Amino acid sequence: MKKISCILITFLFVLTLVSCGSVNKSKIVGTYELSKAEGVGISLTQEQIDSMKAIGLTATLEIKDDNTAVMDIFGEKLDFTYDLRKMVFTYEDKDEKFTFDGEKIAFNNEGRALEFTKIK
Q1: Shortest CA distance to 84 belongs to which of 104, 62, 63, 113?
Q2: What region, left, alpha or beta, does residue 54 occupy, with left being phi > 0 and alpha being psi -120 to 50 degrees?
Q3: CA 45 to CA 27: how far, in whole Å?
């Protein structure tokens, strides 16, 4: 009985560790638009972002189901991979931590912050 209890507790512990910090992929997959940008002495308001969008300057983040993502910043596209267990995007072998609240993806590193809000 002690062996069975020990195995059951170990199984539950491993299951808890595996599920910690991970996001359901179906919730994060989609297209996001830039909703906040700060850094290097610059802070864009939503009004400024909307004005840029009105003249064709857009910044989007597309999260795909195959663990890849494309960030399109004003026409310059960057290809990423992502790991939901570690909550990181990887670009050129560099990891960038992010948060996801079900609607917004946010990056905050070294005094710069980007936030993308899901549009579809």
Answers
A1: 63
A2: alpha
A3: 27
Q: What is the pLDDT of residues 42-87, one digit of tens each?
A: 888 888 988 988 998 889 999 999 999 999 988 899 999 999 999 9
The domain made up of 24-118 is a member of CATH 3.30.450.40: no
CB atoms within 10 A of CB 95: 14
Residue 44: per-residue pLDDT = 86
27: left (phi over 0), alpha (psi -120 to 50) or beta: alpha
CA distance 107 to 113: 5
What pLDDT, on the 0 to 100 scale, is given for residue 18? 36
What residue ranges do the domains of the chain occupy? 24-118
CA distance 72 to 1: 58
Residue at token pair 């670009």 = 91
